[in-house]
Write a structure and sequence with these properties.
The chain is an all-alpha fold and about 120 residues long. It contains five helices and no strands.
């Protein structure tokens, strides 16, 4: 039951554009005992499902540049292939550490940016 509640709350955050994916990975690794790679893959699938539902709204409102989508999809596919190949060859702790550093840096930059605005 807790998993459903967490999934619902994270979906709300993702829908608002807050980026709840980091929270999902943290929850899956710390509370559900998922491995880091499995948690990141689950987060990716969860994000794709949320994004697909949002695409229909953006298409309806005509806010999508299909040329940009093509460029991002191409580059994203190449990046996904390269990083998934690397993920199978590195120590599983390295992606966990990198994600933690990324979350800390992005959170710190957000706080600094919001402080400067005020």
């Amino acid at each position: 039951m807790l998993d459903l509640i967490v999934a619902f709350l994270i979906a709300i955050l993702m829908g608002m554009g807050i980026g709840g994916g980091g929270f999902l990975v943290i929850y899956l690794t710390l509370c559900s005992n998922f491995g880091q790679i499995i948690a990141q893959g689950t987060n990716l699938v969860f994000f794709i499902i949320c994004a697909i539902s949002a695409v229909f709204v953006h298409i309806f409102k005509r806010k999508i540049s299909f040329l940009q989508v093509l460029i991002m999809a191409t580059l994203g596919s190449v990046g996904a292939f390269v990083t998934s190949s690397l993920a199978n060859t590195v120590n599983p702790e390295i992606p966990r550490i990198c994600l933690g550093i990324l979350l800390c840096v992005s959170g710190t930059l957000s706080i600094i940016k919001n402080t400067k605005k005020k």
